[in-house]
Write a structure and sequence with these properties.
Length: 260
Amino acid sequence: MRIMIDGRYLPDNARVNRDLLITLRNMAKVLNWGIRYDAQRELVLINSKDSSMPRLPADNHADERSEEENARLAGKVICLDPGHGGSDLGTLGPTGTMEKDNTLAIALLLKEKLEKSGATIVMTRDTDADVAYTDATANEELGARVEAANQADADLFISIHNDAFASNTASGTTTFHYGDKDSVNLANAVQRCLAEKLGTKNRGARFASFYVLRYTNMPSILIEVAFISNAVEEMLLSSVDGRDNAAESICEGILKYFKV
Ligand SMILES: [Zn+2]
């Protein structure tokens, strides 16, 4: 079961079991909260402001979406770049989870969501593999990613990464751009959606001279979704819900950028 408080999902992968549900119901009684359990969706809804029953959130199944919604990104080509892969593991979390797995999982979820809005997606990789060739150097890898986006004449380039720092208390979400107006707008839109939905510290949209941002011909951003070196954020990055929330927010940010 998931928990939604005052219309917002809890950002981490907190799960409610039967015992906790009983506890929550007792708490709600004492604190005068509204609480409702939706068994079909395995969702606990809490209204902390008053004791009225919280309203169920609207379903967003694809078949209930309007045709207009399904075509919002029609004609747009978006290149998704899951950071690292294959022989390049990226950074590792405290429990051994790998950046290359988190970035691929988020990118594949994002691909699905963007395609539902009509976009054409080009992936620099869609399996756990190097992009250029097995055991390629870091520079060859970056070159191959840029080439994939430029050759596809993509409208956007989105590179997905996990942040890491020596201190395990560093946390939050950052989106990097190369300073051109469109990339800055895209970075701002995506960064806002991500920090809001994940509930992570908003480290802002920032300039960076990363190779993949410098040499791609289209508006491009590099997203550090959260810190894999931080135990709490490692859980977010490796959990099904955390990855889906990340993908959903990036998708929302892209829709906002295109104003559709
Ligand atoms: Zn990375």
